[in-house]
Amino acid sequence: MKIYTRKGDEGSTHLIGKRVTKTNARVEAYGMIDEMNSFLGLALSYLTDDIYNDLRADLTKIQHELFDLGGDLANVSEKLDWALKEEYVSYLENRIDEYWEEAPALKNFILPGGEKGAAYLHVCRTVTRRAERQALKISDQHPLPPAALKYINRLSDYFFAAARVVNHRAGKADIPYERSKDVFQ
User: Fold this and answer.
1) Is the pTM value of this prediction over 0.90?
2) Distance (Å, rounded) from C-alpha 180 to C-alpha 109?
3) I want to staple 118 with a disulfide (CB 3.0 to 4.6 A). Which of 45, 136, 141, 166 is the partner?
């Protein structure tokens, strides 16, 4: 079997349920999810020390969930059988709380960066925010899984908390944004 089909040479692709242009909002959204997943793989490649075993397990779990989310974003069929589950949101919330407690208290915005794995998790966070905005555009007109918008929103928070934990475990302090007001209480 060949990987190329030549069906998209004219700028169209298949969603689940119909063919659309590659500039379709859903194609843009799941493309952003795919981009995030790739950056997540890059972050994982830097988190090789045993102190990151729990993070690696989380991030691999999230990579699988991102495929679920991408499939849901591509689903315009009459049969809306969503893959993304509400329990994914709860899991993220629990992990965010644990990582937030582990890292030093924070009052101000911080500069993205630090360890390479943390820096790429910050990139994941920003791509997630972009994907969230795109998903919101879709949800204005088309149904999405009930958990989708919550999941994407929590995911950016998760990446922020995880990046801080990576730096903390590596012994690297976050760099506060020097003109930040107290934003975390």
Assistant:
1) yes
2) 6
3) 166
* Residue 22 predicted with pLDDT over 80: no
Rg (C-alpha) for the chain, rounded Å, is 18
DSSP 39-53: HHHHHHHH--SGGGH
95's tokens: 């992990």
In a domain, 109, yes or no: yes
Residue in the structure block whose two tokens are 């209480």: 185
| Residue ranges in 47-147 assigned as alpha helix (H) | 53-73, 86-102, 116-139
Q: Sorting pLDDT into bands at 50, 70 and 90, what band is 16?
A: low
Distance CA(28)–CA(112), nearest Å, equals 25
Q: Is 13 helix (H, G, I), strand (E, B) or coil?
A: strand
Per the CB < 8 A criterion, the answer to whether 75 and 15 are in contact is yes
| 85 three-class SS | coil
Give me the domain span that covers residue 74: 25-170
CATH number of the domain within which 124 lies:
1.20.1200.10
How far is 152 from 148, CA to CA, in rounded Å? 6
Angle, nearest 10°, between helix axes 25-46 and 53-73? 170
Both tokens of 51, joined, read 């102190």
